[in-house]
Protein 1
Amino acid sequence: MASGRLFEDIPPFPAGLQTAPLYTIPLAGLRSGDEVTAKNTLKACQDLGFFLLDLRGDRLGDTVIEEVDQLFNVGKDLMNLPYDEKEKYLHDAPKSFLGFKPRGHAKIETSEPDRFEWFNIGQDGLLGNTAPQRLPPLIHDRHSLLTSFVEHGQSIVRTINSTLATQLGLPADAFASLQEPTKPSGTVVRIIKAFASPEAEDLRTSMIHHTDFGTITLLANVLGGLQILAPHRPPEDKSAWLWVRPQPGCLIVNLGDAMVQWTGGLLRSNVHRINFAPGDQRFSDRYSLALLVRPEREASMKRLTGPGEDGEDGDLTAWEWEVKKAMALTREPAMMQSKGGKQAATKT
Ligand SMILES: O=C(O)CCC(=O)C(=O)O
Ligand SMILES: [Fe+2]
């Protein structure tokens, strides 16, 4: 999340909304190996699969706050380029999701068009794992800021991964060794613009409910709009949607489906969506920034711990598994359900 600066000129997040009960995990505690922090992290990742990560008071964290502030401004400039400029970088879905996705290219629950744009910048091109991605000059000029954000974000992800692995009684590098940033993967930096909702007809979802495919997502929000589906409740139940209140100096962290697969369902990947922003915030365009980490393409999706049988998915590579999931979702979008969160004996 950004520093307090980006929160100064925005309408307030309204009081009285039903908000998600999120743990706040201090990055400093995670990095120093504090046992209470580690236990709370595991609990958050089992109960809801979402938590706030407080970056403040940690050297790496303070650097990331600065980078997020700068990238928010880059993201606004990018998304406010004329449409025909952005269109030059149109993604080639479903073959590749890199580049620009225009508003309305996907549907929401009601089959109406979505209300957001995104631009995905691949880690592989940034770090030189593959040929560079073609990017607008405005982004190209900020290459070192982007690579630095990816490297710092990946360092945070590594810490979360080793904390979770250790708490589950696995070798510390059990998850991290399947998602080395220097190996080709579907990992992206994503810049999102969800459009303001001034009219009554805009008061609906911007981005359809979903779970993230990957391992760990680091998300920076300033305006509200993100909602988490309360566990064990159906998406059609309006009262089951919990708002996330963005907090200065904190990132929102959530787990994706790969962590559920590797842990036989011990960890949780929870359904979430972008709704219209609450209160007077709805009159502003909403920008957000995420690092969505995926396993290495060649990583095995075999279960590393947890109950149950592997099933045939355990024989797939991460890339094959992601393609299979994407195809299933195209056929049956209603399959977007939270996964994991099984209770089982863990390290005491
Ligand atoms: O912008 C946000 O708050 C959430 C974005 C999201 O869920 C995604 O890109 O997967
Ligand atoms: Fe997401």
Protein 2
Amino acid sequence: MKVAIIGAGNMGGAIARGLAQGHYVRVQDITVTNPSMPKLEKLKVEFPAIQVSTDNHEAADADVVIVAVKPWKVEEVLKPLRLRQPQVLVSVAAGMTFEDLAHFVDPEMPMFRIIPNTAISLRASMTLIACRNASEQQTLTMLDLFNEMGLAMLIEEKQLAAATSLTSCGIAYVLKYVQAAMQAGVEAGIRPKDAMKMVAQTVEGAARLLLENEDTHPALEIEKVTTPGGITIKGVNSLEHDGFTSAVIKAIKASI
Ligand SMILES: NC(=O)C1=CN([C@@H]2O[C@H](COP(=O)(O)OP(=O)(O)OC[C@H]3O[C@@H](n4cnc5c(N)ncnc54)[C@H](OP(=O)(O)O)[C@@H]3O)[C@@H](O)[C@H]2O)C=CC1
Ligand SMILES: O=C(O)[C@@H]1CCC=N1
């Protein structure tokens, strides 16, 4: 399977690295393009067998074409390439619908919209996948590719905006909590670097408690920490008095 990645920025570069380290695509079958060379040269140093080019046309003769440019550049990038079935189009452009994309390529071709988050650079992404005109096999392949870069989930296109807020924007919201907790720790005399590690490991632990037990729920895990009359319930109730739950709901909805 030959894969072209158009755009070697945060997302394109991370997907290229993820694919190159994965089991489904041979490194020499990956071509990455960008208007200038520095990002491509960096990739080439890391993966000497990877193909790089500043010419999108040269790369577009691939089985799967992943477009990873900013949303407002998608039209000018895709139109000249005249992509058509049996090629598969994969777009990571947030907010660009299948209907939008269909104006720039063969509208009947298989298409995927993929929304990773920035943890894809560590192969720890929550990646959302929606499909149109795709076979079951093509969809399974896409899930396999992105499950190697974290956790991938197939959802309907109409859920993408809300799910993007939870996952891509969600990285920023979680980090805002980390920053706030660090500020409190520093005020209490903990060194910033130590506070960052303490909070980050705690966030990872909380995530694993949920991800590694299908039968659990945040409420159950919170109950395990909150000793009646103890210190945790004081903090949890303080968060509620200050509108924490409401603030998070408003933030997620603001990003949809
Ligand atoms: N960042 C995030 O968390 C998420 C981003 N996305 C989506 O991913 C897409 C890419 O975002 P991101 O990677 O952050 O952006 P970047 O700006 O980091 O990457 C875009 C890349 O595209 C390159 N580029 C520009 N024009 C062309 C062209 N004509 N042909 C080939 N390459 C070109 C740019 O080159 P250069 O700048 O070197 O000139 C740059 O390297 C966006 O559509 C965004 O909506 C989706 C989910 C999450
Ligand atoms: O903030 C944004 O618009 C982009 C899309 C999803 C994450 N970052």
